[in-house]
Amino acid sequence: MLPIELLATTADQAPLIRNLYQFYAYESSDWEQEDVEVDGRFYIHDEHLQRYWQADGWGAYLVLADGFIAGFVLVERSELPGIDAFELADLFILKKYRRQGIGRAVALQLLGGEGDWLLRCYAQDAPAVAFCKAVLAELSRPAQAIALDDEPALLNFLVAGGRHRRTSG
């Protein structure tokens, strides 16, 4: 497998993330039911995008494979009631780099890190569901499906961080 690196971006790289996000939006437009704007681009909420460089616990990362941009990952601090966790909000790997274990390696690195994590995927997105389940099966920490009411089309998984231990009984 190619050497993989997660590179934290800075606010001046927002245009780069915005450009890469267009490919992500295109690929997910069928199940997210999104249309392009009059300028031919998918809508990006700029205030939300800026939070990746301004809000605590949020971050936008480039995925580099052998030094080349292979995709991006967006991490958020969950704002859902009762969920104190990081959320792997968006993970996108360019087609050239797919099926090489890059996305899996990135997800395992993040979800295996500090703290609790929320992983969500659209139930209609069969490849994403298969990906999420495969990643969760490889984790060395407990993960469980949870029900959340905010987005009925999403499957939700909570990954327990290192400070939690499984108890029997």
Give the secondary structure arrangement, pairings included.
Blueprint: E1 4-8, H1 14-32, H2 46-54, E2 59-65, E3 68-77, E4 86-93, H3 102-111, E5 117-122, H4 126-138, E6 143-146, E7 154-159
Parallel strand pairs: 4-5
Antiparallel strand pairs: 1-2, 2-3, 3-4, 5-7, 6-7
Task: Outline the structure in words.
Helix content is 30%, strand content 27%. With 169 residues, it is an alpha+beta fold. The chain has a domain at 4-115: 3-Layer(aba) Sandwich (Aminopeptidase), CATH 3.40.630. The chain has a 7-stranded mixed β-sheet, with helices on both faces. The longest helix is centred in the N-terminal third of the chain and has 19 residues, at 14-32. The radius of gyration is 16 Å and the shape is globular. The termini are far apart.
What descriptors fit this protein?
alpha+beta, 7 strands, globular, seven-stranded mixed sheet, Aminopeptidase
Ranges with pLDDT <50 over ≥5 residues? 163-169
CATH homologous superfamily (4th level) name of the domain at 4-115:
Gcn5-related N-acetyltransferase (GNAT)
Radius of gyration: 16 Å
Main β-sheet: number of strands, strand sense, barrel status? 7 strands, mixed
Content-based structural category: alpha+beta
The CATH architecture of the domain at 4-115 can be named as 3-Layer(aba) Sandwich
CATH topology of the domain at 4-115: Aminopeptidase
Ends: how far apart? 41 Å
Please give the CATH class of the domain at 4-115.
Alpha Beta
**What is the chain-wise order of helices and strands?**
EHHEEEHEHEE
